Amino acid sequence: MTDYGILAPAWAATGAAELVDDDAVLRAMLATEVALAEAQAELGVIPAGAAVAIRAAAVPAHIDPAAVAAGVRETANPVVAFVEQLTHAVRTVDPSAAEYVHRGSTSQDILDTALALLCAATLDRIVDDLLTCADALAGLAEKHRDTPMAGRTLTQHAVPVTFGLKAATWLHLVIDAAQRVLQARTTLPVSIGGAAGTLAAYHAYGHETTEATLRLPALVASHLGLAEPVLPWHQIRTPLADVAASLMITTGALGKLAADILVLSRTEIGEVTEEQAPGRGASSAMPQKHNPVFATLVATAARQLPPIATVLFSSMASEDERSSGGWHAEWQPLRECLRIAAGAAANAVRLTDTLQVVPEQMAANLRMTRGAIVAERVNAVLAPLLGKGNAKRLLAQVTASAERTGAEVADLLAEALQEAGVTAPDMTGLFDPAGYTGISGPLVDRALKHFKESSHE
Known about the structure:
By secondary structure, the protein is mainly alpha-helical. It is 63% helix and 4% strand.
């Protein structure tokens, strides 16, 4: 019955599953019931001794997960069977305290709060991993600030860039993702609303004042490290939609990183490679293979998560004060999104920390088109002599000829200009790709400055 992730490469063996598995769900539900009892005790709604007994009984060993799962088929949620077991456990500790278990609460309060706790723990880990990934990328950007390489657009060589700028682009994406995950984490609310979001039973059981009842969500939130909601959010599903959005941005950002690395690590390109270790990237059939493992795992996550996350957005449009089906549809997709994103972040840490950069191959690839990669620069130099349109047409002819014949663009251009009776400009250094990377270096500096400032916020 255990799911080790054999068919889940996006999160297998990353520790992500344990953050949201059934045991984690039950622990979060227990923590929620304890926090509720202790907050009610602070308000004088239940005896302090009852809260002590509930805490003592609220241990995973007292809950049978199989029985809770079986109860889902009877009541459409896991909380009813869970509360029965918890109440029985409390009764064995202090019979009088059993009366105060789940006092005034409803199933959605407990499960939504438990899910918020799972989100909080997972998002905390994702943020940590994203920042670790960002550190590695910042190091690559700084080290390779001025390392020239071929920039590619629509799969073809375009103009030179620097690997530092490419790494800085990845860095900016990762920082964007970390900020959005952190925002979603800090606004995760506790769920205290009662049967229809009025807190009626919480209020009635304790004969509390309105002020005391309104304090209850804040007290429970403080016990659990969650935010206090403005209103009960049984039908305000923005918190989980925010989580879903931040996770989609995370896997999208990391997916861009992985996609680039997968292209650059192709045999015929070879500008980066993943760290090679015995057995890593091995093929069951081909002895020579060193497949890009971590980039593949991250790319998998980027493809898997978005369609699953759409369930969380579609569940926002649900009926009444509490829905039949909309709420229930969220649980498993949320769990899968959390572990996919956590797995992606963990794998991205390994990917960026051990990525091998091959500047000499970048230099070789820059020479592949025999100078055509700086045609834009040459066009700008020739435009005052020939006119922009004429210069572009001439260069198109020259570069096409270089591609057919294997000759150097500079040589063919000099011949063409001589035939046209045009005095050739000084071409010293004109065809050096390293001299046409624009302001890549200052852009890298700007990205690194932004990263350092973001790290201190």
